[in-house]
Amino acid sequence: MEFYKIGSEHAAVLDATGKRRAGLAAIRMVNVKQSQFRYNDFKDLYNLGRSGGSQHAYYAAHYSSNNTFYGNRFIRNLSGHAIKIRDFSNDNLIHYNYFETVTPTALQIWHCEKKDRSDCTKAGLGESRSYNTKETKNIYINTEKYSVFKERVGQNNPLPYPGGVYDFIKDGATYLRYIVRSQLNGRTLVGICERATDCISSTARCYKDQSGTQNHKCEKGNWVAR
User: Which of the listed residues 50, 115, 121, 171 has the most CB atoms within 10 Å of its CB?
Assistant: First the structure.
C-alpha cells in the first residue's frame, strides 16, 4: 500500500483558531501487539513549510509491543521520524526497510517525562521507557539513523526536542541517554550523556560528576573553576 502526500503541506485541516493543524502520523498505533507492518510505501510526508517534527509514518505508542516493521520504504519524509516508538512499547523489530531523505531521523524512541515537561497528559506515574527495540539490515540514504538531535554544543539555541530523557538504538540494543546542559564561561553547552549529572564540554565530551579538566571541575551538571 502507498501512503502519499500526507501532512499539513498537502491537506488544509484547520484548528479552532483557523490555522492548519500539523499532521501526526500516517499509521498510529495504541496498544497494538503482535502485528506485522510490511511492504508499505510512505512518500512525501511533511507538514506546512516542511517543518515541525510531528508528521511520522508509523507511530507506535502506549504498550504497542512485539510488532514487526519489514520491507517498508520511506522516501522524503521531511517533518518527523519514519518510525517513532513511545511509552512502554517493547520488543519491536525493525528490519529490511528502506529510508531515503528522512528528517530529522529515521527512528526515535521516546516517552513524555513528567519531571522535565509540563505538557504530559498521562495520569498517575506517567509514561515509561520502551525496551528491546531491534534494528537490523535496513538501508539508509541521506538519512540519519538514530541520533536524538543534532548537537548544538556551545550555542544557546533551544533543543529541537524538549524534555530530558531519550532512548536510541545502536548495534541492536536500546540505550538510555540524558540531555544535559552545562554552564561554562557564560555559555550553555548541550549534549547527550549517560548520566544526568554529567557535564558537557565544548567538544561534546561528557565528564562525570567530580571529574573534569585542568581548569574546571564538574559539579552535578555544571562547570566550576578550580
Answer: 50
